[in-house]
Specification:
Structural class: mainly alpha
Oligomer: single chain
Number of domains: 1
Helix content: 55-70%
Strand content: under 5%
Shape: elongated
Low-confidence stretches: none
Distance between the termini: 21 Å
Largest sheet: 2 strands, antiparallel
Order of helices and strands: HHHHHEEHHHHH
Radius of gyration: 21 Å
Amino acid sequence: MAAAQRKLELAKGTFKYTAVERGIGFALALLLLFTMHEFAHAYTAWKLGDPTPKEQGRVTLNPLAHLSLFGSIILPAILIWRQSEVLFGWAKPVPFEPENFRDPMRDKRCVAFAGPGTNLVFGMAALLSIVVIAFAVRLISPETEGMNLASPFASLSLAGPAASPYLAHTLWFLRQLVFTSVVLGCFNLLPFPPLDGSWILSSLLPQRAMAAFEKLRALGPIIFLVVIFTPALDIVLGIPLVIAWGLLAIPLGALGFA
């Protein structure tokens, strides 16, 4: 009887976001992640000795300096409109000149990894924030229960003294920030032009192989579109999503919120 009552309370406490709330939440997450991604590229290149990003006004946290019309606005808007649970996109590439670096190959890898690396760090920070909030709620209000806080796509539920729409909104936003950060970070690490992973791969190849690979860069947009519109992308990005889900579910499950 008690178990049935708890399930009923959780069902009543399900956080049902509207399409507008969902769109705003995703837009804010993407705006933050795109800005920090490109800022990380620009700042790293500048610190490694290339003044180009600074001269182009890219060493800034102003989102307007980094957003791409299609990759940052149109594509995410289409995905949000289609109510896609997985969002991705890109911002304007940061220009840099490898010859200005002290160690061009090594520093080019550092610049390329800085963007997706920053996204992954944001994802881990959001994950830890969820765990800290859940731990605090459990300490302050042991009666509070939750469900689906770790699930990427399910509506989360909260019931008990500490449950509130504000807490639910916060946890939902942080949860989406975790999974959107992971998707963007891993997506940009794919070794296809013009993604960051292609620059990392290029810098690791022997000279002859690197020259052959760079000749393919002109075909980058075509390769990129083929990759986007094939099931392979869902499979590849599904792996880090499952890992992130597991990392979030373990501590939340221990706290009784999974």
